[in-house]
């Protein structure tokens, strides 16, 4: 059962697609804190808190504070309160009962879950305006299903998007792309796509292609298509300010860009230098920008990823002027600890400055809103622009789309990847723990950069990460310019990377079927153990094992130099220790605690009693997988 309540004068977000009559009574469970923009819930010692989508820390969110404010921050350390997403749905569950809540507000809101007071959950609002949805159910899974039913069906990508994708910032020209594909094929490692980061563009201009680097892009796309390789270019949120550039000139002419209070177009900066931001909250601007994807669709492109859409801001022209003026005051002075840090902070604070997000406005649903009041809707509506355009421009063909920034509602138009993570073992664990909360919020097509985006990966970390990544719908290896190259074929143990990649392709029939079941029936592809076994106290303690679909549980190894791991089984299961799709040993393990060996090249998969795991014979591309002749491992 879902009930709707109102706080103040909420801004509609279009995240809920079902009409629900507003209740006249007070919000249940939470009390309004008098004199403050806060709601309060007194937690029982056995209450667990799940959800909030893409955040740091574990699956149970109790004990920290999370702020819903889409942030361009590549350093996902434990002290961070905001990442790229704002996904305000959570479930509180303890002692065999609980409830869910969706706090639908596009502005800044914090979830203080036992941080200020160990046993108190505070929801703190910058503006006390929100639609509050309270969901009751007999179980956690019932509550999630009810919530998913009101926010609309999740995005479905093309089937090839379940194949492996290789990315790097940046493959600079068509020869480098050919080299990547050639080497994967030469080493018999399956691959379906290569991603093009910002350097494919002409001087970082959206919907352009560099003639120097890709002199005949249409022919190159066709060449790759003949090899069953899909090219997936990036699209950024900022439009370069340049006379003669059609996107810029059309946006200025038709007033499609975000404006300052005085009516001038905001001048900010990202990759191309100075840019304007399209007003994605404006329906006309959204349609205009979405139709621009046709430029690349006409080349034969059938996949995209949207980036920098929090929006990321290197600086604004206005704030940069202010900083330059202030720095002049320090010239010739003896800078002590205070003055030096003040000067350093001014320069370091240019990027993603809070004041800059208050400098521009949106035209949204017939009203004008300052950006910070609707900040969390920006990336969502950029991807919405693309998704709605694909329905117009390519109604008979699915197009791959995923985004960095998101809000609930965007799940209907695209998937997400978890942004600029690092090549850290802790981020492999973070990837494992983020998947369930993303699924709760409707983001089923999701994944993180396998191996980590920033820092230098080690071979063992990349292999262990790939062993988990083969289960995530988005399976992409991506790394930053200047870091160690991490294509699978570059490492000593190429055979293990080949075998693990082939296991992914053997799993695709199962993963795709379970993905579609999760979408069609508003269920979760990834689930923590306690969601399926709420009566098992030990299941709540386990945050590094996941059910994937209806038949299997996985227990990834995420520690360096580990030759196995401890596993808790809430029921009897059949262990398959995979070295490749056709090379594995099996044993039945009883309910309880086990130490299970897992060499560096082995993947642990547990099959539930009464279930089966279908395995295909791998092909080098998803298109060539034979779905009619599957092998089955049963328990």
TrEMBL record:
Top-level lineage group: Bacteria
One function term, GO molecular function aspect: hydrolase activity, hydrolyzing O-glycosyl compounds
GO biological process, one term: carbohydrate metabolic process
Key words of the record: Glycosidase, Hydrolase
Domain Glycoside hydrolase family 31 TIM barrel, chain residue ranges per copy: 155-513
Glycosyl hydrolase family 31 C-terminal domain mapped to chain residues: 523-611
InterPro entries in alphabetical order: Gal_mutarotase_sf_dom, GH, Glyco_hydro_31_AS, Glyco_hydro_31_C, Glyco_hydro_31_N_dom, Glyco_hydro_31_TIM
Leader sequence residues: none
Domain Glycoside hydrolase family 31 N-terminal: 36-112
Pfam families in the record: Gal_mutarotas_2, Glyco_hydro_31_2nd, Glyco_hydro_31_3rd
Family: Belongs to the glycosyl hydrolase 31 family.
Protein name: Glycoside hydrolase family 31 Gh31B
Lineage: Bacteria, Bacillati, Bacillota, Clostridia, Lachnospirales
């Amino acid at each position: 059962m879902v009930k709707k309540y109102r706080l103040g004068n909420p801004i509609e977000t279009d995240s809920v697609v079902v009409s629900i009559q507003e209740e006249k009574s007070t919000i249940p469970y939470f009390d309004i804190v008098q004199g403050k923009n806060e709601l309060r819930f007194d937690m029982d010692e056995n209450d667990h808190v799940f959800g909030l989508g893409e955040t740091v820390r574990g699956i149970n969110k109790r004990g920290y504070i999370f702020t819903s404010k889409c942030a361009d921050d590549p350093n996902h350390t434990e002290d961070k309160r905001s990442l790229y997403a704002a996904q305000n749905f959570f479930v509180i569950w303890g002692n065999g009962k609980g409830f869910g809540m969706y706090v639908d507000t596009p502005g800044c809101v914090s979830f203080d879950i036992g941080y200020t007071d160990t046993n108190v959950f505070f929801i703190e609002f910058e503006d006390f305006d929100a639609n509050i949805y309270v969901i009751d159910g007999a179980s956690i899974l019932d509550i999630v299903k009810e919530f998913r039913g009101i926010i609309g069906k999740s995005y479905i990508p093309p089937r090839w998007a379940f194949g492996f994708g290789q990315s790097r910032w940046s493959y600079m020209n068509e020869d480098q792309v050919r080299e990547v594909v050639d080497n994967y094929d030469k080493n018999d490692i399956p691959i379906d796509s290569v991603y093009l980061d910002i350097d494919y563009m002409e001087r970082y201009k959206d919907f352009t292609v560099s003639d120097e680097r890709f002199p005949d892009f249409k022919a190159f796309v066709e060449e790759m298509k003949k090899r069953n390789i899909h090219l997936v270019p990036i699209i950024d949120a900022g439009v370069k300010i340049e006379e003669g550039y059609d996107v810029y000139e059309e946006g200025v002419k038709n007033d499609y860009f975000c404006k300052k209070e005085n009516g001038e177009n905001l001048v900010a900066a990202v990759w191309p230098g100075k840019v304007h931001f399209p007003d994605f909250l404006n329906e006309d601007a959204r349609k205009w920008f979405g139709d621009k994807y046709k430029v690349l669709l006409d080349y034969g492109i059938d996949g995209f990823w949207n980036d920098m859409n929090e929006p990321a801001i290197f600086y604004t022209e206005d704030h940069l002027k202010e900083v330059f003026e202030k720095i002049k005051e320090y010239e010739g002075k003896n800078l002590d600890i205070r003055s030096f840090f003040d000067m350093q902070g001014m320069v370091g604070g240019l990027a993603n400055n809070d004041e800059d997000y208050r400098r521009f406005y949106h035209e949204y649903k017939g009203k004008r809103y300052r950006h910070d009041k609707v900040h969390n809707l920006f990336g969502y509506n950029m991807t919405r622009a693309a998704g709605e355009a694909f329905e117009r421009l390519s109604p008979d063909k699915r197009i791959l789309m995923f985004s960095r920034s998101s809000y609930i509602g965007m799940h209907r138009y695209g998937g997400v990847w978890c942004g600029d993570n690092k090549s850290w073992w802790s981020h492999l664990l973070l990837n494992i723990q983020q998947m369930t909360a993303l699924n709760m919020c409707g983001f089923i097509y999701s994944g993180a950069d396998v191996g980590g985006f920033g820092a230098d990966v080690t071979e063992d970390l990349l292999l262990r990460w790939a062993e988990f990544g083969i289960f995530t719908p988005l399976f992409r290896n991506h790394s930053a310019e200047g870091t160690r190259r991490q294509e699978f074929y570059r490492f000593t143990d190429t055979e293990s990377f080949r075998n693990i990649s082939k296991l992914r392709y053997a799993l695709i029939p199962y993963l795709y079927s379970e993905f579609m079941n999760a979408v069609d029936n508003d269920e979760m592809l990834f689930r923590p153990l306690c969601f399926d076994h709420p009566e098992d106290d030990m299941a709540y303690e386990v945050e590094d094992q996941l059910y994937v679909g209806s038949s299997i549980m996985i227990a990834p190894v995420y520690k360096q130099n580990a030759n196995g791991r401890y596993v808790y089984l809430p029921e009897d299961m059949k262990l398959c220790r995979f070295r490749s799709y056709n090379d594995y040993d099996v044993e039945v393990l009883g309910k309880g605690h086990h130490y299970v060996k897992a060499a560096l090249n082995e993947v642990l998969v547990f099959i539930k009693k009464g279930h089966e795991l279908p395995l295909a014979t791998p092909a080098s591309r998803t298109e060539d997988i034979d779905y009619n002749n599957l092998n089955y491992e049963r328990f």
